[in-house]
Amino acid sequence: MKIAITGKGGVGKTTFSSMLSRMFAEDGYRVVAVDADPDANLGLALGFPKDIYESIVPISEMKKLVSDRTAADAGSFGKMFKINPKVDDIPEKYCKEHNGVRLLTLGTVDSGGSGCVCPEHVLLKRLCSHLILQNKDVVVMDMEAGIEHLGRGTAQGVDAFIVVVEPGERSLQTYRKVKKLGNDIGVKKVFVVGNKIRNKDDEQFIMNNLEDGESLGFIYYNQDVIDSDRSNKSPYDTSELAKQQVEAIKNKLMLLETSK
Ligand SMILES: Nc1ncnc2c1ncn2[C@@H]1O[C@H](COP(=O)(O)OP(=O)(O)OP(=O)(O)O)[C@@H](O)[C@H]1O
Ligand SMILES: [Mg+2]
């Protein structure tokens, strides 16, 4: 299963991605958590020790790797390079592992518009589409906020988008845009997780804005989650309640994914 976690800025994509990844790992799945946000911080939320976390070099910044694989100098827009670089060994070689979760940090590319075809971009896109899985493999992609980047294709080929929303109109608007874009790039399944919920009214507000079968559940506003961020710990290790709520979400996801 390969899923991309999307949504408006600050709604809790990274928090949820980290908890879901840790939970799948604990269940015995082989998990690759992909940090696809140029402002990468998934490793922190996964609870990686600082020294490992700080040693991570994003794939797009491995200039030699990029140029070796694409036979181009990094950033050499307009020159000749391979559009089908070898990537199958990259996850093994460049993932950092902690708590059973393998983290792959993509980094950023100077996109120069949605039609960008720089070598870094070609490598990232091919790498993501190559993360094809064996049984019991799960890929969780923590995406950049918003929708602009979705057209660039790193999330193409995922089985589903999970859009994280808050009980407010602005993040729901992003959800509607993601849904439309998903359709355009062939991702038909779009699920929703409501985060930072305070009460049943919040749940209802979100439900009123969704179609049947889209909601995976809710994570309540939780002081332990905030504290975990402040003390650089994984929310998975600090909040039992949020963990239970993520578990219910994961179970529903599995149910919907296996009953298709
Ligand atoms: N259920 C929750 N209760 C309380 N605070 C939360 C909850 N979920 C997330 N937060 C807090 O909200 C902030 C943003 O969370 P997070 O970084 O996961 O969002 P994001 O969508 O990944 O943001 P960005 O768009 O910047 O990548 C963090 O301070 C986090 O601790
Ligand atoms: Mg984030």
Automatic annotation (TrEMBL):
Pfam families on file: CbiA
GO cellular component: cytoplasmic side of plasma membrane; cytosol
Record keyword rRNA-binding present: no
Gene3D superfamilies according to UniProt: P-loop containing nucleotide triphosphate hydrolases
Superkingdom: Bacteria
Identification of the protein by name: Carbon monoxide dehydrogenase
Residue ranges that the Swiss-Prot or TrEMBL entry lists as coiled coil: none
Domain spans labelled CobQ/CobB/MinD/ParA nucleotide binding: 4-233
GO MF assignments: ATP binding; ATP hydrolysis activity
GO biological process: negative regulation of cell division
Signal peptide residues on this chain, from the entry's feature table: none
Keywords linked to the UniProt accession: ATP-binding, Nucleotide-binding
